[in-house]
Amino acid sequence: MATEIRVPALGESVVEATVGQWFKEAGDAVSADEPLVELETDKVTVEVPAPASGVLSEIVVNAGDTVAVGALLGAIAEGAGKASPARSSAAAKPATAPAPKAAAKPATPPPVGLKELEREPHPREEITPDTYDVGETDDAMPPSPAARKLLAEKGLKPSDVRGSGRRGQVLKGDVTAQAAEALLTRERKPKPVAPPRAPVAADDESREERVRMTRLRQTIAKRLKEAQDTAAMLTTFNDVNMSAVMQLRRDYREDFEKKHGVKLGFMGFFIKACVQALRDIPAVNAEIDGDDLVYKNYYHIGVAVGTDRGLVVPVIRDADTMSLAEIEGAIADFGMRARDGKLGLAEMQGGTFTISNGGIYGSMLSTPILNAPQSGILGMHRIEERAVVRDGKIVARPMMYLALSYDHRVVDGKEAVTFLVNVKESLENPARLVLDL
Amino acid sequence: MTTYDLVVIGTGPGGYICAIRAAQLGMKVAVVEKRATHGGTCLNVGCIPSKALLHASEAYAEASHDFAGMGIKVKPELDLPAMLAFKDSGVKGNVDGVAFLLKKNKIDAYHGTGRITAPHTVEVAESKGKTQLAAKAIVIATGSEVAHVPGIDIDEKRIVSSTGALSLAKVPKRLVVIGGGYIGLELGSLWSRLGAQVTVVEMLHSITPGLDGELAKQLQRILEKQGLTFKLGDKVTKVDTKGKGVTLIVEPVDGGKKETLDCDVVLVAVGRVPNTEGLGLDDVGVETHARGRVIVDHKYQTNVPGIYAIGDVIAGPMLAHKAEEEGVAVAEDLAGQAGHVNYDVIPSVVYTAPEVASVGETEEQLKEAGIHYKVGKFPFTANGRAKVNRTTDGFVKILADAETDRVLGVHIIGAEAGTMIAEAAVLMEFGGSAEDLARTCHAHPTLNEAVKEAALAVDKRALHM
């Protein structure tokens, strides 16, 4: 009996994925839990393991197809197919094998995925002179005469509309309201389509490369734009003298690494400083839910990590309960796995505040965009010796600009500035972190 | 050749309404009318002139019999030519009104007989010659004409149809009406009030076929009281016009003794048949039933795309207001809207005195369909306004679903019944219940209170009984 291979649950809010590479071909032998196919989702790339051992008898979706959670990907038949190493290439296959493959592969893959999600439009109700009924039983309250005409014209059924008349009768106004609402949502749903790209000179066009956006890229684009469209976002700046932190690193780097097995970096200090500031200014750690504000008494700090696939933001959960060493360890682990695309979905969800470090790429100053629905994001930048005035003298100090972008709907200007000053002071006097000041 | 979005053949209530609605919806519309005036049978030789004469004759009868009871002493004198002139002026006012409406809606009117020569071409035989009209859509609204009885030739003098009966030069001493339907009863009543001895011969065993049986019986009793004689279950087998008068041989349908009836005028009122002759339907291949009725689909389209038909030429009751609804529906459909006619809620009225008005199912129909129903009845004798108006004949009868209380039929016999039935039609169009009607405030003192009381009576809680 064949075992179906279906799209697994991909984590909260993930409903569909793009099929990536198949590691096996139809006819290949597979063993249970062996990776079969790659699925690219909004957040990560996951590998779908074989649900059973046997022969990959059928592949119903191809690379590039969009599939919904639960959609059929293929099937595994019982039996010992030809032995084939994982990730075998076509070239590695014996020439005698293609027959079963051709037979097993349907000519046209059955429609799965997106199409399943699409709703069929209502067929237009037919009005016949001799039947008055609009699909209701005789004892039901029929729509009013004008409502009945409108329903037919809008292709709606009486049951689609909430009647406001006596005993729930659908009245003309109910249909108009429903239609207006439907129109609004319809207009809202497909976001204003960007105007098609202006024509390019043929000469130039031949020197362009058109690449389909990865799902990750599309999601990044969508999320960032959503954040911009939703939040009342603005940025406040400050600078921080990094001398103290740098001195600490210099003094304890070796001991720290020896004891904890991780390098003593800057990020740990920033996370500690931010947690401290978030405790003092809870609004920055809050989010808006409808008409409510949700204040979170936990501190899950997202750390933006650039990878060659794009930006991912793994979350350090309960950062307030972690030691500096634990935080540094977590960051190192995330960084490594992010680069390999091995981060799990759960590891990138639930953040309450985000830190983005553009400094590692040399950024002097930037205005980060919120990681919605969070209300604050701290931007770190490069450290450089700058001339500052101390005690009336111009001196050189290792300085970093700090930027806090925040949602002004949640966070007041005073709170935002205080938050950033708080972070600055903690970094300039790390003893404050120890003393919980 | 002028191209129209819509050409309507016939400007009776169905046709001219269809044209106006289409014009309202932005179509370029033309109408074709073979009469010199618009309005069709209804306005020229049907509803309107008959109502004028019914109104006048009722006033005459009232003045003759009822005024004294209210303390008015008069001795009315009939001036028939003047009464007929009054009728004609009423007709003129109405047909001119239609002409004005067509003009106002920028509808081109062609006078002449229309003929469909091709699926999108109408040829009008005007007095000045033939005109071709190109039409994206054609609506046949040519109505109906008087049905004939084999062997009885209508000369519109002594043997008349409804048309002739509206213009009799003098009141006949004795009038025989063949047909106990609403036309025969209305026109029979009319001449009876003006002094004729009226005998109604009907093949069926009751008058006004299709009417709720209880109302039909009540109407017959009241009309008999007014002086009409009914010969039910009888048929006319011979009409002899050789002598000065007319002699009819009448015999029972079920067999029995023949009888001779002498009279001055015979009114043939056995119904109406679709009027499609000369339209060229055969030439373009429009399908019709045996009796000329045009076959249409649920959008009133014939088997020839682009050719539609409404009103008396298609199935359904031959009523002006039914044709109007269909005219509106066709126009709206052509404009891309969802035109619709609710055939379950088409009122019908017999304009006798008292009037009889019905909408929805009769008790007989409900019984046959096996539907459980409740009856609420209220007589006008218990209605205050009817009492002082001296119009206590009749009652209101409401039939409601036994379970849902939804009103399935309303039948009224009484003064102003035709006007009162409208509230029942509105209620039924909204699918209302008897209680909905009973809980709707009705002005006092009005005849309509009887409707509310009948609705209360459905729940056995009439207040004035």
What does this structure look like?
The complex is a heterodimer of chains A (437) and B (465). By secondary structure, chain A is α+β, with helices and mostly antiparallel strands. Helix content of chain A is 29%, strand content 23%. Chain A is built from 11 helices and 19 strands. In chain A, strands 9, 12, 15, 16, 17, 18 and 19 form a 7-stranded mixed β-sheet that branches. In chain A, strands 1-8-6-3 form a 4-stranded antiparallel β-sheet. Chain A is globular. Chain A starts with a strand and ends with a helix. By secondary structure, chain B is α/β, with parallel strands linked by helices. Helices cover 32% and strands 26% of the residues of chain B. Chain B contains 14 helices and 22 strands. In chain B, strands 1, 2, 3, 4, 5, 6 and 17 form a 7-stranded mixed β-sheet that branches. In chain B, strand 9, helix 6 (182-193) and strand 10 form a beta-alpha-beta unit. In chain B, helix 1 runs parallel beside helix 9 and helix 3 (47-65) packs antiparallel against helix 4 (80-104). Chain B is globular and about 65 Å long. The termini of chain B are far apart. Chain A binds chain B through residues 126-130, 132, 138-139, 141-142, 144-145, 148-150, 152-153, 165-166, 169, and chain B through 298, 300, 316, 326, 329, 337-345, 401, 403-404, 406, 429-432, 436.
